[in-house]
Design goal:
The structure holds 2 protein chains of 2 kinds. By secondary structure, chain A is of the alpha/beta class. In chain A, the strands form 2 sheets. In chain A, strands 6-7-8-3-9-10 form a 6-stranded mixed beta sheet. In chain A, helix 3 packs across helix 4, helix 3 packs parallel to helix 5 and helix 5 runs parallel beside helix 6. Chain B folds into 4 domains: 190 residues, no CATH class; 185 residues, no CATH class; 227 residues, no CATH class; 138 residues, no CATH class. Chain B contains 24 helices and 22 strands. In chain B, strand 7 and strand 8 form a beta hairpin. Chain B is elongated, with a radius of gyration of 33 Å. The two termini of chain B are 34 Å apart. Classes of the chains: A alpha/beta, B alpha+beta. At the A-B interface, helix 1, helix 2, strand 6 and helix 3 of A face helix 1, helix 7 and helix 10 of B.
Chain lengths: 219, 825
């Protein structure tokens, strides 16, 4: 049963007051469930735009994007219902404690065991004793581990991560990176990461380099 | 279920921050005011409706200030099924050493035509009904009067040597409505009990209570209109009764109050909405990052908002129930017997209406929420501008409120127009000041140019802040100004009186007795000015009822006969305000001078012809001059004055008004003077002061309560303004401090920012207040608008200073956080 995202000859550009800036053109890419993919490249190359298009958050200016979930072609909205996100700024809900943040996706899906599952995931990411702490009482690394667990807790088909270690020091980054890949492997989801970090990118099954509108396999 | 629980949790969490609390409190305050207003209004309306039968005593009442001629009365009786004649005169009743000024009603054998009288054997005893009034030789005393005179059933009172036996305590007259909100002490006798000379003419009233078929009543009405121009008609049907107009005026003021309060609340809510929207957009974007559909997120956001509204409604209803009970208890002085009715349907309707209005205010935010996107979390896009949508939603909501609460569209339109003037002024000033300031500062160094630069970058947010503060300033200023001037108008009634006893009305025969009594008791007559009663009938041939439709104190007074005096020279306590006053030897006697405020209020012009009914004849006068009261030279002043030569042409009894100075020992002897001259109207200054204080106390309580609400909401606006922009200011301060600026510099920069904001808002508020004053004072409250420049300047300074001080403390608070925290927002 095919679960994948297919970008075919896509083009993306945006207008400023003076000119039209083209980010990329004629770009094709296929991302499957169970596969991890890292997109690297200089700032302004269009990495985040590519991630947004792949996640169905915005439509490309040209070309075709197709989403398949369990063998069926679906629209962007359905894909998003089967996706999770990890952000550079963590984006935890400030008014909720750690376990509340973790339980949130399951509660929104109407799951009665939301807090039990959240407690298990807290244990898994090593923050069991921080369950009642609010985001501002946690360090950056701890916040990102919560955000990471929150993305995986509902076992989505795809996880999109935008600079997930961009706000963390090297040591913390390594911990978060290995946790992220472990979770991806355990849940069997597809993982798409945009990053500047070569250490992080190196962990992915596939690495793509986006620069000057061209997407190439990276070493 | 978990989504509902989560919505509830979110709603409770939202109340933990400042914006949530301000929003909830504002909604509760607004709802409390509107529910209290609705319940009070419903109680009074119910009182009026259920008491109409028991308050008019007939189908129709014709009131005249002189009894009809025999032929006229015969015509009236021929047209109607039943007629009862009652007379009403102000006299002083005595019992032992106690005395009291009362309204004495004389009734015939047919009184009342409809409804029943309620009487008892003592003020506190069980009441019983009576179909007819007192018999000849009997008198019924009102409960308060009996207490004041210390008279009981069985006692005998003497009126002009006629002994009358107290046979009952009068609790209710079925024609009570005719007295409007008059709370004078009352007594009732049979008309056969009074001697003929007791029937005085002038200020006394004769009423013809009439019953009949609708056709007969229409015929009576037409006949009265043609034959008796000075008579007034009160009908059971059609709302033409005194209390209706009194209550309408009150409702006008309260309607305006609702619009003003709602607008203030809307400004406060709009400011907190900005933060609410940012929070909801963030929440929805995060929700959608783990697959929650946007529709579910919006439904949860709205659900949370609704829960918070319901909490506010519960608190507001409880508070409104208490306030309503207290207000109706106060209003019982005006509407005796009114009860606080609990009307659940009215509460539901009001709550529903406010919910719809707040939804209208919320509409731009909901639309904006529909555009929430996960992309904003990835790209950190701003919220964009939606000032115009918010403004349009605010105006829509206020218009809906006006439609629901105000039946006075002119007043509502004027209020909205004044707000419009203020808004335009503030928008123009904000844009001009900030853009010109930025232009001026481009090549200059220093904090002020930098402040202008920052303001220019945040022009839309700045405009919203200025408009919010300015509108609340306008509403606050206007309300305070209106209350100050209404208060001053009330104070005007307590002009200093010379002497301690006022001769409010003495007939010619009383004067000699008065002078003799004064000589015997060491009292002194200070002033005594003559007058005749004159009823203004037409203005340039147009009937007074048709001449002006707007509510006016002058108009209300002119519906009754007023006092017309004569003089050859301007009295010492008056000065000429305009026109030309006559000379002593002027032969043209049909000239008249009018007090300036009345002239302005009634919109009269020099040269107008005023026709009066004086005695049995009509007289034309030309308005030639206007005069104003000059304090410190005697208190007796008249609205209308004519040349002394006019008196010879007028056939009517002369009456006098003046003042006396009584030594302490003479007060106890007053009862004897009144016993001999019961129609002599003397008002001790102590009693006048007491009456005035009672009225002023009610007015003060109502306006203070209202001012309290306005101030409370203005504080909410200020709090919402500071709270709503705190995050922006923290981020800005953090950025500046990270660049090496000191705390002091940041404070100074913020001070510039707040000062410019407050100054523009204050100028807008003053402009709007000025426009509101010009439009509303004259048209709706019958007052002349004379802005006090010092007062206006003082309030501007105060407003700017308050905003700057609050802004300064808010900034100091935010600077206590470290640079890193500041940058984190």
């Amino acid at each position: 049963m095919k679960t994948a995202i297919e970008l075919e000859n896509i083009r993306h550009e945006f207008d400023t007051d003076k000119e039209c800036i083209r980010l990329f053109d004629n770009l094709s890419l296929s991302i499957g469930k169970g596969q991890s993919l890292a997109i690297v490249g200089p700032s302004g190359a269009g990495k985040s735009s590519l991630l947004s298009i792949a996640a169905g958050l915005e439509a490309p200016t040209g070309g075709m994007v197709r989403f398949f979930v369990r063998g069926e072609e679906v629209d962007a909205r359905t894909l998003r219902a089967h996706s999770g996100f990890i952000f550079q700024q963590f984006h935890l809900m400030p008014e909720l404690d750690a376990i509340g943040n973790l339980a949130l996706p399951l509660r929104l899906k109407g799951r009665r065991d939301a807090f039990d599952q959240a407690a298990a995931w807290l244990d898994k990411v090593g923050l069991k004793d921080r369950a009642r702490h609010r985001p501002h009482q946690l360090s950056g690394g701890e916040q990102q581990r919560i955000a990471l667990a929150r993305a995986f807790i509902s076992r989505p088909d795809f996880i999109f991560a935008d600079e997930p270690t961009g706000n963390l020091d090297v040591r913390t980054s390594e911990g978060v990176t290995s946790l992220m890949f472990d979770c991806a492997r355990e849940t069997g989801c597809g993982l798409v990461i945009v990053t500047h970090s070569s250490r992080l990118a190196a962990q992915a099954d596939e690495r793509l380099h986006l620069e000057a509108g061209k997407l190439e396999m990276a070493a | 279920m978990s989504k509902i629980q989560l919505t509830l949790e979110n709603s409770l969490n939202d109340l933990k921050d400042g914006d949530g609390r301000i929003s909830l409190t504002t909604q509760a305050a607004l709802l409390m005011f509107l529910i209290t207003l609705t319940l009070t209004s419903a109680s009074i309306q119910k009182f009026l409706a259920t008491n109409l039968d028991q308050m008019l005593g007939a189908d129709l009442v014709v009131e005249t200030h002189a009894p009809l001629a025999d032929t006229q009365e015969a015509t009236l009786r021929a047209m109607a099924d039943g007629v009862s004649v009652t007379g009403l005169s102000g006299i002083t009743l005595t019992h032992g050493d106690a005395w009291a000024r009362v309204q004495l009603k004389s009734v015939d054998d047919h009184y009342p035509l409809e409804g029943t009288l309620k009487i008892a054997d003592s003020p506190g005893a069980l009441e019983r009904s009576a179909d007819r009034g007192p018999k000849g030789g009997e008198i019924w005393l009102g409960a308060r009067l009996a207490t004041k005179l210390q008279a009981r059933v069985g006692d005998t009172l003497t009126i002009a040597d006629t002994p009358l036996k107290v046979s009952a305590i009068l609790l209710h007259e079925p024609d009570r409505l005719m007295e409007g909100h008059n709370v004078d002490l009352r007594a009732m006798v049979h008309s056969g009990s009074l001697r003929a000379e007791m029937a005085t003419r002038g200020k006394d009233r004769t009423r013809y209570l009439i019953s009949g078929t609708p056709t007969a009543l229409a015929n009576v009405e037409e006949w009265v209109g043609e034959t008796l121009p000075a008579a007034s008609i009160v009908k059971k049907q059609g709302g033409r009764h005194p209390l209706a107009s009194f209550w309408q005026r009150t409702e006008n003021f309260l309607g305006l109050a609702s619009v003003i309060l709602f607008f203030l609340g809307a400004v406060a809510l709009d400011m907190t909405n900005r933060r609410w929207l940012a929070k909801m957009r963030y929440r929805l974007a995060v929700y959608s990052s783990f697959g929650t559909p946007l529709g579910t997120g919006i439904a949860m956001a709205m659900g949370g908002w609704l829960i918070s509204f319901l909490m506010a409604a519960a608190v507001a209803t409880a508070l409104a129930a208490l306030a309503h009970g207290a207000i109706v208890a106060k209003l019982q002085a005006v509407f005796p017997g009114a009860r606080a009715n609990w009307d659940a349907l009215a509460i539901l309707k009001t709550t529903g209406l406010l919910l719809m209005l707040l939804m209208a205010l919320q509409l731009p935010s909901i639309l904006k929420l529909a555009r929430s996107s996960l992309l904003s979390l990835i790209r950190h896009t701003g919220e964009g501008h939606y000032v115009w949508a918010r403004l349009a939603a605010g105006l829509l909501a206020v218009s809906l409120l006006a439609a629901a609460y105000s039946d006075n569209w002119l007043l509502t339109g004027m209020t909205l127009a004044a707000m419009g003037v203020a808004l335009v002024l503030m928008i123009v000033l904000t844009w001009a000041t900030v853009r010109l300031g930025d232009l001026w500062g481009r090549r200059r160094a220093g904090l002020l140019p930098f402040a202008f630069f920052i303001m220019r970058q945040r022009l839309f947010a700045k405009s919203a802040q200025v408009m919010g503060l300015g509108l609340s300033g306008l509403l606050l200023l206007f309300t305070l100004m209106l209350m100050r001037d209404l208060g001053a108008m009330m104070e005007g009634y307590s002009r200093t009186h010379d002497g301690n006893l006022m001769i409010s009305e003495a007939q010619e025969s009383h004067v000699a007795a008065l002078v003799t009594w004064a000589d015997e008791n060491g009292a002194k007559v200070l002033t005594l000015r003559p007058f005749v009663y004159a009823k203004l009938l037409t203005v340039n041939g147009v009937r007074l009822q048709d001449y002006m439709q707007k509510p006016s104190d002058s108009m209300t007074t002119l519906q009754e006969p007023v006092r017309l005096t004569w003089t050859d020279e301007m009295p010492q306590n008056n000065r000429l305000a305009g026109g030309t006053f006559w000379q002593a030897d002027d032969t043209a006697w049909q000239q008249i001078s009018l007090e300036q405020e009345v002239m302005t209020d009634m919109n009269f012009s020099y040269g107008d012809t005023l026709t009066y009914q004086i005695g049995d004849r009509q007289y034309d006068f030309t308005l030639v001059a206007s005069h104003v009261f000059r304090a410190g030279r005697g208190s007796i002043t008249f609205w209308f004055q004519m040349p002394a030569t006019a008196r010879a042409h007028i056939d009517a009894p002369t009456r006098y008004m003046g003042s006396m100075e009584l030594p302490d020992a003479a007060w106890d002897k007053l009862a004897a003077l009144w016993q001999q001259n019961p129609t002599l109207a003397l008002a001790p200054l102590r009693e006048l002061t007491e009456r005035f204080d009672q009225i002023l106390a009610i007015v003060t309580q109502v306006t203070s309560g209202y001012a309290g609400m306005i101030l409370l909401l203005a504080l909410f606006v200020l709090a919402a303004s500071v709270s709503g922009f705190r995050a922006d200011d923290r981020q800005k301060n953090g950025l500046l401090m990270s660049m090496g600026l000191k705390d002091r510099d940041c404070l100074w920069l913020n001070f510039h920012d707040w000062a410019v904001t407050a100054l523009i808002a204050a100028v807008g508020a003053v402009g709007g207040t000025w426009a509101a004053g010009l439009m509303i004072y004259e048209a709706q409250f019958g007052m002349t608008y004379r802005p006090d420049l010092m007062w206006v300047a003082g309030t501007v300074v105060l407003m700017v200073a308050s905003v700057c001080v609050v802004g300064y403390f808010a900034c100091r608070q935010s600077l206590k956080v470290s640079v890193r925290d500041l940058l984190g927002g």
